[in-house]
Write a structure and sequence with these properties.
- The chain is of the alpha/beta class and 896 residues long.
- It has 4 domains: 4-238, Dna Ligase, domain 1, CATH 3.30.1490; 249-335, ATP-grasp fold, B domain (D-amino Acid Aminotransferase, Chain A, domain 1, 2-Layer Sandwich); 376-510, Phosphohistidine domain (Glucose Oxidase, domain 1, 3-Layer(bba) Sandwich); 553-642 and 682-895, TIM Barrel (Alpha-Beta Barrel).
- It is built from 35 helices and 33 strands.
- The strands form 7 sheets. An 8-stranded mixed sheet has the order 14-24-23-16-17-18-19-15. Strands 26-27-28-29-30-31-32-33 form an 8-stranded parallel β-barrel, surrounded by 5 helices. The protein has a 5-stranded antiparallel sheet with strand order 1-2-7-5-6, sandwiched between helices.
- α28 links the parallel β29 (724-729) and β30.
- α28 runs parallel beside α30 (777-783).
- The longest helix is centred in the C-terminal third of the chain and has 25 residues, at 604-628.
- The two termini are 36 Å apart.
- The structure holds phosphoenolpyruvate and magnesium ion.
- The site of phosphoenolpyruvate has 10 residues, from β27 and α31.
- One of its GO terms (molecular function) is metal ion binding.
- It holds the Pfam family PEP-utilizers_C.
- Its EC number is 2.7.9.1.
Length: 896
């Protein structure tokens, strides 16, 4: 194997081997741009070093050879006493990890070569400044000396000499500083700063290898989901100097503004400076316009190079450059990171400029970026101080008065107040409060806790698991980590995109993108004309890319919606139907009591009375939603939640009975009820009597729903509309369950058809959300006209962990240990759960070639999962209305 590659050997496509920096230095070299000569030690060498603890065999010889080549090319020897070659040693991994790993500049300077450098450069100050930088960087990164020691010594020296900044220090000051730095090294590391240039080089290379595994690099990789085993490449580059006086300097530049996407170059320049000075913010930087005044020739050349790079990479590039006595050198380039708004805007511009086509533009933006643009945001210019931070569960910026229970939230909302519902955790009883609130804040729970899932579904801003807040619903207050009390009625602001919580009201700016997606015009704002123009350009780019995604995608996008209002919103946002209408939300509030009567009825008459009461209510529910989605499929799921949600609370009831007994006036009715509730009580309700099991055990319940659907459809047909309900049976594990419900449903629909004299026929199908259903899909498809994968339950039952509990308990440890990189409730576990889905899809189609296949779990709106569903050729994904545009975009990207 070859471990070392000259810059003249590689190309930008070799990032795996050469790292991003090395690959791009090679690319610029082959483009004929002014890159200082050098070579790259491969990531493979690093991996071997990290695995074995020593350099791979042959590496030293290859470095010798390439160093000799560099020396002869430059006509200087590394660390030579009279005219030294100096090199920089820079890390550069496959994925950029800004500031995470180490760099050592000016390698090759020693007590003797510093004099040589001074003589050749004709500048003593420069030579000693370079030497003190080497000792400082080498001390920190190679010898592990705390950087503070050097910084303090530098500060003290500036103070002693009255220097305002480090450029004001003279050669003598710097010479003394070097002595001081060497003393620090000796004291802090028990070794002398090495005077052998080659030893400096080897140790710097090793330190860069090792910097792959520093704590901060690991944390960064975890956050960015960069694999831990890639290793970094090391670039050894001939030094060019930006600290050779006022006609030298160093800078960073972007070919477009990465924050706004504004066309035109953008950058910072610092005269008489080296390396990290620009980003470190040591002195105030100048703009590129200033550089034009200072050094027109270099400026013009730089602009020309930037244009070359943009054309070549066909994208926004960022670069690092140095000017050494009027000669421009390129030290780095890469395709630059950018904000969500800039990503869309630049993609649109590049299409207009003919650099990329519409397909490629689609690859340049992501659903996650679109989601960011769809939420209102806190005004970035506003003053604000965060009091705590939790998990960002559902994005958006919400401001309102704190309410600690649903009733208060509803009451205040009715009075026209904005409310933030604050709870330790939420449960289904909080639903009304959540609907009435602008945002939801909980001190417990994870990203798939009840609060998080429901809030995402409703598009409410939500922050969960803010453990630093002590919520005391009784005292009607919560306390912040520094002891401040926030009482009910006080105003707070929460940012569902970052998880931050602020005291008081932070100003919010609405999303122009959402307006436009709904077909409205971007609202004019108080901002400047420039800002409005920029915003409109972003909006136009989003719409244009959405159109292209729609042209491209094969997957249909439907929405999960339970009300007419949600259905209309989903349709406006481009949903082609409803993939999941969860009917349990229709049985809350007052209706819950009726369901309780049905379940606990002691006689068929009692039961039928309850069912008769529910039927017109359900008919109205279905009429509304079918009408809102007229002409499009509406998949209505028969009742799913566990039994206990419809029973009186067992603890409360027990207390009531016990109190009655103890006070000598026993309540016979309560006691009988308690006995019944105890009989039905379950230890694991989610694995108990829910879904189809409830439908089979409680006579008439599912039939009532089917009848209501059929009656709603018949009445809409009579009005000349085109209702398209699909009847879906939840939690089926065996074909026999489905057959029983299907037979009932078909008979019921036929009855209503006969009664109303209409021609009614609706597809009957099933959720596939249990492993057994996947493994028997062949049989189940005999009785199902469609499958809809319920990946929430399927994930829960495949892994065997509860979707309601685990994200706050052991998930953090699992994520930490890399057992999974992201919660499988958030992004589909393709290897396990996904495998079950593909088996079921495949077998279902074998039985019934026209079987319709969709997904309605949370994963239906998740970008990575959508790419998986495209790969196994499902027919549609269904997600919450607000995710519909994101799903459309990702489905388009997945189809490319
Ligand atoms: C599912 O299980 O994936 C699903 C969509 O149903 P629910 O979330 O209502 O259980
Ligand atoms: Mg389910």
């Amino acid at each position: 194997v070859q471990y070392v590659f000259d810059f003249t050997e590689g190309s930008k496509d070799q990032r795996d081997l050469l790292g991003g920096k090395g690959a791009n230095l090679a690319e610029m070299t082959s483009l004929g741009l002014p890159v200082p000569p050098g070579f790259t030690i491969s990531t493979e060498a690093c991996r071997t070093y990290l695995a074995t603890g020593r350099e791979p065999d042959g590496l030293a010889a290859e470095v010798d050879w390439h160093l000799a080549g560099l020396e002869s090319g430059m006509g200087k020897r590394l660390g030579d006493a009279t005219d030294p070659l100096l090199v920089s040693v820079r890390s550069g991994a496959r994925f950029s990890m800004p500031g995470m790993m180490d760099t050592v500049l000016n390698v090759g300077l020693t007590d003797t070569s510093v004099e040589g450098l001074a003589a050749v450069a004709g500048d003593e100050r420069f030579a000693w400044d370079s030497y003190r930088r080497l000792i400082q960087m080498f001390g920190k990164t190679v010898l592990g000396v705390d950087g503070e020691h050097f910084d303090k010594a530098l500060e003290a020296r500036k103070k002693d000499t009255g220097a305002e900044s480090d450029v004001d220090l003279g050669a003598d000051d710097l010479r003394e500083l070097v002595a001081e730095f060497k003393e620090i090294v000796r004291r802090e590391s028990d070794t002398d700063f090495p005077q052998d240039p080659r030893e400096q080089l080897d140790r710097a290379v090793r330190a860069v290898f090792e910097s792959w595994n520093t704590e901060r690099a690991r944390i960064y990789r975890r956050q960015e989901r960069i694999p831990d085993d890639l290793g970094t490449a090391v670039n050894v580059v001939a030094m060019v100097f930006g600290n050779l006086g006022p006609d030298s300097g160093t800078g960073v530049a972007f070919t477009r503004d990465p924050a706004t996407g504004e066309q035109g170059v953008y950058g910072d320049y610092l005269p008489n400076a080296q390396g990290e000075d620009v980003v470190a913010g040591i002195r105030n930087t100048l703009s590129l316009a200033d550089l034009e005044r200072l050094d027109k020739a270099s400026y013009d050349q730089l602009l020309g190079i930037m244009e070359t790079l943009e054309k070549h990479y066909r994208d926004l590039c960022d670069i690092e450059f140095t000017i050494e006595r009027g000669k421009l050198w390129m030290l780095q380039t890469r395709v630059g990171k950018r904000t969500a708004a800039a990503a869309f805007r630049i993609a649109g511009q590049l299409v207009d400029e003919g650099l990329i086509d519409a397909d490629e533009a689609l690859t340049r933006v992501t659903g996650a970026q679109l989601a960011q643009l769809m939420f209102p945001q806190f005004d970035p210019a506003a003053d604000r101080t965060a009091i705590a931070r939790g998990m960002a569960a559902s994005p958006g910026a919400a401001v309102g008065r704190v309410a600690f229970d649903s009733a208060t939230a509803v009451e205040w909302a009715q009075q026209g107040d904005d409310v933030i519902l604050v709870r330790r955790e939420t449960n289904p009883d909080d639903l009304r409060g959540m609907v009435a609130s602008r945002g939801v804040l909980t001190s417990r729970g994870g990203k798939t806790s009840h609060a998080a899932v429901v809030a995402r579904g409703m598009g409410r801003t939500c922050v969960v698991g803010v453990e630093a807040l002590r919520v005391d619903p009784r005292a009607r207050e919560f306390t912040t980590p520094d002891g401040a009390r926030v009482a009910e009625g006080d105003v707070i602001s929460i940012d569902g995109g970052t998880g931050e919580v602020f005291l008081g009201s932070v100003p919010v700016v609405p999303s122009a993108v959402v307006d436009a997606l709904y077909g409205g015009a971007a609202a004019p704002s108080a901002s400047s004309a420039d800002e409005d123009g920029a915003r409109q350009e972003v909006v136009a780019a989003v719409l244009r890319l959405m159109r292209h995604a729609d042209d491209r995608r094969r997957l249909e996008v439907r929405a999960n919606a339970d009300t007419g209002e949600d259905a209309r919103r989903a349709r406006d946002l481009g949903a082609a139907g409803i993939g999941l209408c969860r009917t349990e939300h229709m049985f809350l509030g007052a209706r819950r009591k009726i369901v309780e009567h049905v379940i606990l009825a002691r006689t068929p008459e009692q039961r039928d009375a309850g069912l008769d009461e529910l039927r017109p209510l359900q008919r109205a529910d279905f009429t509304e939603i079918l009408e809102a989605m007229d002409g499009h499929p509406v998949t209505i799921r028969l009742l799913d939640p566990p039994l206990h949600e419809f029973l009186p609370d067992i603890t409360e009831l027990s207390v009531r009975v016990a109190v009655a007994d103890a006070t000598g006036s026993p309540d016979a009715e309560a006691a009988a009820l308690l006995a019944q509730v105890q009989r039905l009580h379950e230890q694991n309700p989610m694995l108990g009597m829910r879904g189809v099991r409830l439908g089979l055990v409680v006579p008439g319940l599912f039939q009532l729903q089917v009848r209501a659907i059929a009656e709603a459809a018949a009445s809409l047909l009579a009005r000349g509309l085109d209702p398209r309900p699909q009847i879906m049976v939840p939690l089926v594990a065996a074909v026999q369950e489905l057959e029983a419900i299907r037979d009932m449903a078909e008979a019921t629909v036929a009855e209503v058809a006969a009664e109303t004299g209409t021609d009614l026929r609706f597809p009957v199908g099933t959720m596939i959300e249990l492993p057994r259903a996947c493994m028997t899909a062949h049989e189940i498809a005999e009785a199902a006209e469609f499958f809809s994968f319920g990946t929430n339950d399927l994930t829960q039952t495949t892994w065997g962990f509860s979707r309601d509990d685990v994200e706050a308990t052991f998930f953090p440890a699992y994520l930490e240990r890399g057992i999974f990189g992201v919660s499988p409730f958030e992004s589909l576990d393709a290897d396990g759960v996904g495998r079950l889905v593909s088996i079921a899809a495949w077998e279902g189609k074998e039985t019934r070639p026209d079987l319709e296949l969709g997904v309605c779990g949370e994963h239906g709106g998740d970008p990575d999962s959508i790419h998986f569903f495209e790969s196994i050729k499902l027919d549609y994904v269904s997600c919450s209305p607000f995710r519909v545009p994101v799903a459309r975009l990702e489905a388009g990207r997945a189809a490319l």
